[in-house]
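Contributing new records

If you add data, match the layout below exactly. Sequence lines come first and carry their own label; structure lines follow with theirs. Keep one chain per record. Anything else will be rejected by the validation script.
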Amino acid sequence: MAESILENYTVAWICALQEEYEAACRMLDEEFTLPEQLDISMKDNNTYDYGMINGHYIVIGCLPNGRYGTVSAAIVAKDMVRSFPNLRFALMVGIAGGAPTPENDVRLGDVVVSSPDGDLGGVVQFDLGKRIQGNGEGSSQSFKRTGQLNAPPSVLLGAMPRILRFHRDPRKPDNLVEHIKLMDDRADFRRPDLDQLFQSDYLHQSAGKSCHSCRREHTVNRPRRAGNREVMIHYGTIASSNSLMKNAHERDQYAKDQNILCFEMEAAGLMNNLPCLVIRGICDYSDTHKNDEWHNYAALTAAAYARELLITLRPANVQEMVSWASEFRISTPARNR
């Protein structure tokens, strides 16, 4: 009986931080308490929360406290598939640092979703490649990316245009805001007031995280955005690595050269190991002005998009997908009786 309960779960929702985990659990239509005798694989070190959204059975896993990066994410995912043999795909949901450009008006609280763009599948490991010496004394070196990460499953990509169409149509209700309201009782998850993008050559002026000492005349003048949506959705390439991006000049170069929309630290550990879609709420601008003020709200907007995706997806279409264990020939050890 316990084993059959585990087989109901088709969607893995993976988080890295506490605020992401709390937002994820709040998005569930129903939250389940599974029997204590549930026979999770002995090799599975994760703890889980369980629930349902729109008929999809969802298991939520969070990276161990203080453990971040691509390797930690890969370990959590591998443990999940040992215990839940019928998982079809994973959603990596959380926060990231934005890479705004004149072409991509990414702002704090916006949502970035991994989607194929040119020869990129939606996520690029930007620290995986070759640094090549320039030709001549004093010339700069260049970086050549190597390797390719898989694109998200077609079933998930197919749902994304409909979500974006409804979100852009002013006649339609703002579904993301409705999902965000599920955490209205948490003041610490409300939208902050101040969104400042500083010029790329202007460094943070305080030893602390606050930007109160940073001078406003060094902010980028950005016009108020048109439309009636609180959160904007961006589809494209997410950059992933084991190091945190806090360099505005590098941020701008990657955004220009590879059309990067944001930077994060886990997705590259998942994309070639399991079918995965990455959803990121923008919490800072990947520069020295990085602080935690927008963390909670950005985690919430990413979770709201994930909920909207699962509401859009038909459970029958998900059931028709091949399970992780079958597609990647991952052996699930016999359970202890």
